[in-house]
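Severity: low
Component: inverse-folding endpoint
Summary: output formatting inconsistent between runs
Steps to reproduce: submit the following C-alpha cells with default settings.
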C-alpha cells in the first residue's frame, strides 16, 4: 500500500489551531503505517508565516492557498477549493480536525466528491491490507470500527486529543502554492461580521488545566470559590451541562457530548457525577482529579485521583495548599 495522505488544517488569523497539529500527527502516523506520504493543506489569507512553520515539519509537501478570497471562512468556497484540489491530486485519505468548522462543511465536501466520510475518528489500524478506523457511537458508550467502501478519497475527521500535537515529527517540507481561480468560486454567503460568543473568547480545547464545575456546587454564589482554584492553577473554568443550563457559566464553557471535547494535562471535576455525556468530552484528559461527596459516583471510574468529600471544604483547602506550594 503506498498512499498519499492529505491533512487539511484550520487556522485563524494565521495561527494553526491545536487540533490541526493533532491531525498532522495522525497523518504522519498513518503515512508510516501504510508506507505513504503526508502532505498538509492550508487555506486562508495572509498565512505565509504559518506555512513557514509547517515547512519545518516532517511532511512531503505543504500546499498553500493564500488568497484574499479565502480570508473569511465560507463553506461554499472551502468546499469548491477542496473539491478541485482533492479531485486533481487524488489523495487516498484526507484528514481534518473535527471542529465546528469542519462539521459545517465536511458532509457537503464528501457529497460533492462522492467520497466516504469517517467523522470523529479516534484511532486507526491497518487490517487485511486496508485501514480501519475507530470512532465513538451512541454518545461515546461504544466504539465502532469502520472501513470505507468503494474507491476514491476517504475523508476522516479526528476527535480532539486523539493524537498528541506535541508528538508531531519535525523535519522539512516544501511549500507549494495551490493555484485555483478562487474569485470564480461562489462563496454562497456573505460574511457581514464575526462576533465572539457571549462570555468572551474561550477555547477550552486548548486549555492545559481545567477546573470543571458540576451541579454539586449547589448555586452560582459558590462560583468565586471555584474561580479561586482555577486562578491558583492558571486554569480555565469548565462545567457540566446543568451548570450551563442554570446560567451559572456561559455556554462556551460546557464540556461533553453537546459541548466541547477537551484534553488538558490536568482536569479537576468538582461536584460532577460522571454521566456518559460528560465523560465523552473529558476522558481523554491526561490526569483527572475528581472531588465528590458520593464515593460511588461514576466520575471516580475515570479519575486518576479521587477525593471523597464536600467540595465546599475540599476546594478552598486545595486552593490554599496550591498557593502555599507555588508561592513558597
Ligand atoms: C442529549 C444529551 C446531551 C447532553 N450533553 C451533556 C454535555 O455536553 N455535558 C454534560 O456535562 N452533560 C450533558 N448531558 C447531561 C448529562 O446526562 C448529566 O445530566 C450531566 O452531566 C450531570 O451533570 P452533573 O454531574 O453536574 O450533575 P449531577 O449528575 O446532578 O451530579 C452532581 C454531583 O455532585 C455531587 N455533589 C453534590 N453536592 C456535593 C458537594 N457538596 N461536594 C461534592 N460533591 C457534591 C453529587 O454526589 C453528584 O455526583 C446531556 C444529556 C443529554 C440527554
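Observed output (run 2 of 3):
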Amino acid at each position: 500500500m503506498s498512499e498519499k495522505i492529505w491533512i487539511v488544517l484550520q487556522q485563524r488569523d494565521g495561527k494553526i489551531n491545536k487540533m490541526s497539529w493533532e491531525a498532522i500527527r495522525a497523518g504522519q502516523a498513518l503515512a508510516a503505517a501504510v508506507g505513504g506520504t503526508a502532505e498538509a493543506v492550508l487555506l486562508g489569507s495572509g498565512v505565509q508565516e504559518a506555512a513557514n512553520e509547517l515547512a519545518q515539519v516532517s511532511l512531503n509537501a505543504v500546499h498553500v492557498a493564500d488568497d484574499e478570497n479565502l480570508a473569511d471562512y465560507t463553506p461554499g468556497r472551502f468546499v469548491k477549493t477542496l473539491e478541485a484540489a482533492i479531485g486533481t491530486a487524488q489523495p487516498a485519505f484526507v484528514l481534518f480536525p473535527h471542529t465546528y468548522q469542519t462539521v459545517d462543511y465536511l458532509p457537503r465536501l464528501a457529497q460533492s466528491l462522492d467520497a466516504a466520510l469517517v467523522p470523529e475518528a479516534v484511532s486507526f489500524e491497518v487490517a487485511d491490507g486496508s485501514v480501519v478506523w475507530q470512532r465513538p457511537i451512541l454518545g461515546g458508550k461504544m466504539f465502532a470500527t469502520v472501513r470505507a467502501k468503494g474507491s476514491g478519497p476517504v475523508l476522516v475527521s479526528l476527535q480532539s486529543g486523539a493524537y498528541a500535537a506535541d508528538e508531531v515529527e519535525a523535519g522539512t517540507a516544501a511549500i507549494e502554492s495551490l493555484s485555483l481561480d478562487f474569485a470564480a468560486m461562489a462563496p454562497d454567503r456573505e460574511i457581514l461580521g464575526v462576533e465572539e460568543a457571549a462570555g468572551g473568547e474561550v477555547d477550552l480545547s486548548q486549555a492545559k488545566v481545567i477546573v470543571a464545575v458540576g451541579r454539586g456546587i449547589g448555586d452560582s454564589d459558590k462560583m468565586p470559590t471555584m474561580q479561586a482554584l482555577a486562578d491558583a492553577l492558571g486554569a480555565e473554568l469548565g462545567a457540566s451541562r446543568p451548570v450551563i443550563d442554570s446560567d451559572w457559566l456561559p455556554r462556551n464553557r460546557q464540556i461533553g457530548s453537546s459541548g466541547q471535547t477537551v484534553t488538558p494535562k490536568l482536569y479537576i471535576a468538582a461536584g460532577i457525577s460522571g454521566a456518559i455525556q460528560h465523560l465523552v468530552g473529558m476522558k481523554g484528559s491526561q490526569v483527572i482529579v475528581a472531588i465528590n461527596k458520593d464515593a460511588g459516583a461514576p466520575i471516580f471510574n475515570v479519575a486518576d485521583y479521587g477525593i471523597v468529600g464536600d467540595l465546599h471544604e475540599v476546594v478552598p483547602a486545595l486552593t490554599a495548599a496550591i498557593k502555599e506550594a507555588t508561592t513558597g
